[in-house]
Design brief:
Helices cover 24% and strands 3% of the residues. The chain is mostly helical.
Length: 799
């Protein structure tokens, strides 16, 4: 009763616009109580005294002939199927007027849940919630003083205690009452909303200080983590004003996006999100993300293209504007990826074909499932935009570097997860087999730091990989980053000749003077089929690809990323191998050519039989040098006599010593006399008889080419094989095969030959010599270099 009188005194002393109704009700009670003393006693004894605080007309003792100050009329009754003034709005406001500074004060402070508005047509209010007599939300929709929840919120002393369920129609534990009506928001997986009931992140205490209601498990996200039904400080009942994304950034560390090119307030201030909100409303986060009814994955706030959502959300801005301007790739202020870009949505199961290291990728770079979710286990792992890019942090090394409005970006920033400049560690995290490049000549940071790619960036800025390849807006599908070489429309050749040419980056190592044939089909009488070659070395089609390829190009023999095959992969930052002089053991060869001719014999199978014979200079003359001043270790067995690049002799790419040739001798003989002559490395093997008489036409026309027997090679003055001509040393002798009857390598030591060995091409009784010499051809062929033996064995005088 004292509390009741106290309220009367307050109402009498305070008449204002806000509390006028409260004053009228209290005057009514005062009239009843003061003019009817019997009512005091009845009220003291009645168990309905608490009800009478609102239901004034229920007690007969309160009835008088006077009318209530709040006139009853159908229009001011809120609750359906009720009568009397108790359900009038003014009755609620008689207490909840915001004057008393307790929990009731919150109702009038800030923003509150919408009331006195009709629901959308497709929305229904479940039981036990009610609507007003006009089918509108009102206070009684969620609250009732008769609820069991009001009793549950009353302490043992009878005093009201603070709690989430006071006067609510159902318990609101973990925002259950919110979810009962806001079904779409609660079903966040279906409708694209912020996750609920997750405890993956710690909910900062700062949120509770601003009005967030903690869940039963404090760090669980519920509706009231972000929203306050009464006293909200921001729009949409947010506990903080989120127009600058302040609420988002309390929990999410992606606050580093502010001030970067992805802060669209700087770069695209007129943009609107999927809800039609401008950046002044949505803030930097809301430009790309919305907490409810998003377009898809990651609460995306823009129209989502079809495909894997982990990359589609990036391509919703960056994928619609390919551009021919390779310097910056921008169109309408947005940087596009261009026609040629790093493969995307690539299943890591195909990593073997891409030469990736799939077990290492997830250490620093995330992979994604086909539904766009980050994947750490299982087999469905794909490379997406997010694999290389962290879209919220401009600089992976210095978070304080924001880039700013007009930043164009380079390999050290551009929202990359790992810097790609200097050592290209972003690229090499996946392409680990190419780390060896860092320490050798193809690292242009070392050998040509001033050279620029098509984006105008030097190797020091783009990194070793970026000097030749760029991930976006590249020149072709190989992500080529350099200008094409003049005079060639074959991209597979341009990759090499753009640098290895006159006045170019690698002008000291240019090619073009007597080189191994390129851009030719892999075929010839001694060359295996293309199918057999391609199992070891790549052959290329006319478009520069390897599918159904049959052409020999530079990259058939060279791997531009690996200096030495078989060496342990190098992970150093470069600098050790500046302009190293290569040889047959390295030089970016796919297979070594020294100490075994592994590279050459893939195509030239017959040359493998040279190993271990007298013509293998590892056996007979390891210190001998060719015309390029290289010994056999540096050149390999084949390179002693043949140079792949810049040979001094175009014919046969001859680089071995070329010996004396008499005026009437065949020019092919010089290939042998370069060693088999005085002061030559084979000066102890100079035959007394060295030549067949010239002018004696020899004919192979009726014999099968290159058969083990019955055929002798004939050459013209340009060393090209012909069917008719003069004999030369190479007609009877093969450089590579010691024993014509056996398909095996030599014994590995210098031995004396006989009629079956000595590099003879065929047996004496199977040669074309029989055409002229008849039966004497056997001895004349076998003992061609010894006139004495030919005469002695048969007593025949030479013809």
């Amino acid at each position: 009763m004292k509390l009741f009188l106290y309220r009367l005194r307050i109402s009498i002393s305070r008449i204002s616009t806000i509390s006028l109704t409260f004053y009228m009700v209290m005057v009514l009670c005062r009239v009843v109580l003061l003019e009817c003393p019997a009512a005091w006693a009845a009220l003291e004894k009645s168990s309905k005294k608490e009800c009478a605080m609102c239901h004034v007309m229920w007690l007969d003792e309160f009835r008088t002939e006077q009318e209530t100050l709040i006139e009853w009329q159908p229009g001011n009754v809120l609750m359906k199927d009720t009568q009397g003034i108790v359900s009038a709005e003014e009755i609620c406001y008689s207490c909840h007027d915001g004057y008393v500074l307790d929990s009731r004060h919150v109702v009038w402070k800030g923003n509150n849940h919408t009331t006195f508005k009709k629901l959308p047509e497709n929305t229904k209010i479940p039981k036990p919630f009610t609507l007003s007599n006009k089918d509108q939300i009102y206070c009684g929709t969620c609250h009732t003083p008769h609820s069991e929840q009001s009793a549950a919120a009353e302490g043992a002393s009878g005093e009201a205690i603070a709690g989430p369920n006071s006067f609510l129609r159902i318990p609101n534990t973990d925002s259950a009452m919110c979810e009962a009506c806001h079904v779409d928001a609660a079903d966040y997986k279906r409708t694209g909303g912020h996750p609920l009931h997750t405890d993956k992140l710690k909910v900062p205490d700062m949120l509770f200080e601003t009005g967030s209601v903690p869940a039963e498990k404090k760090d669980t996200v519920i509706c009231q983590t972000c929203h306050a039904v009464h006293g909200a400080k921001g729009r949409n009942l947010s506990v903080m004003d989120n127009r600058g994304s302040a609420l988002c950034m309390v929990c999410h560390e992606q606050r580093s996006v502010t001030g970067t090119p992805h802060d669209l307030r700087l770069t695209m201030p007129d943009e609107i999100n999927i809800k039609g909100q401008r950046l002044s409303e949505s803030g930097p986060c809301g430009a790309c993300h919305v907490p409810h009814n998003a377009a898809g994955y990651k609460l995306w706030a823009r129209k989502m293209p079809a495909g894997n959502p982990a990359s589609r959300i990036c391509l919703s801005c960056h994928g619609e504007n390919p551009t021919a301007d390779l310097s910056n790739g921008k169109k309408n202020g947005i940087k596009g990826i261009g026609q040629y870009s790093h493969p995307n949505d690539v299943d890591i199961a195909s990593a073997a074909a891409l030469e990736l290291a799939p077990t290492a990728i997830t250490d620093k770079l995330p992979l994604y499932a086909h539904n766009g979710k980050r994947q750490t286990a299982g087999t469905a792992k794909t490379v997406q935009c997010f694999t290389c890019h962290n879209v919220h942090q401009w600089d992976p090394v210095s978070p304080g570097n924001k880039g700013g409005k007009d930043a164009s970006g380079d390999a050290s920033n551009s929202f990359l997860r790992i810097s790609a400049s200097l050592a290209s560690m972003l690229c090499l995290e996946c392409h680990r087999d190419k780390r060896q490049l860092l320490s050798y000549d193809h690292n242009l940071v070392i050998t040509s730091p001033e050279s620029e790619n098509i984006q105008g960036r030097t190797a020091e800025i783009s990194g070793p990989c970026g000097a030749c390849h760029i991930a976006h807006n590249a020149a072709d599908k190989k992500l080529w980053a350099r200008n094409p070489a003049p005079g060639s429309d074959d991209p597979a050749l341009q990759y090499c000749t753009e640098c290895h040419a006159e006045n170019k980056t690698a002008k000291e190592k240019r090619v073009g003077k007597n080189d191994h044939p390129v851009n030719v089909e892999c075929r010839g009488p001694q060359i295996p089929s293309a199918d057999r070659v391609v199992s070891t070395l790549p052959l290329y089609n006319e478009k520069g690809g390897t599918e159904n390829g049959d052409r020999i190009l530079c990259r058939t023999c060279h791997n531009p990323h690996i200096w030495t095959v078989g060496d342990e992969l190098i992970s150093a930052s470069g600098g050790e191998g500046k302009n190293i002089e290569g040889d047959a053991r390295n030089s970016f060869l796919r297979k070594v050519a020294s100490p075994a001719p592994d590279l050459c014999v893939v195509c030239h199978e017959d040359t493998a039989l040279l190993t271990g014979t007298d013509h293998d200079l590892f056996v007979t003359a390891p210190s001998a040098k060719n015309q390029q001043n290289r010994n056999v270790t540096e050149s390999g067995q084949c390179g002693v006599c043949h140079a792949v690049h810049n040979s001094p002799e175009k014919r046969l790419l001859w680089v071995g010593p070329y010996g004396p040739v008499a005026e009437n001798q065949h020019s092919m003989n010089g290939l042998c006399t370069g060693c088999h002559s005085k002061e030559g490395i084979a000066e102890n093997k100079i035959p007394p008889v060295t030549m067949h008489p010239p002018g004696q036409l020899i004919n192979n026309i009726m014999r099968a080419d290159n058969q083990p027997t019955g055929y002798i090679k004939l050459f013209d003055a340009d060393w090209q094989e012909v069917n008719a001509g003069d004999l030369s040393c190479s007609s009877c002798h093969s450089f590579y095969r010691w024993n014509h009857r056996l398909t095996e390598q030599g014994p590995g030591k210098n031995i004396e030959g006989n009629v079956y060995t000595s590099f003879l091409r065929t047996s004496s009784d199977k040669t074309v010599c029989i055409d002229c010499h008849g039966e004497r051809a056997i001895w004349r062929y076998t003992y061609f270099h010894s006139l004495e033996k030919r005469e002695m064995l048969k007593g025949l005088r030479p013809r």
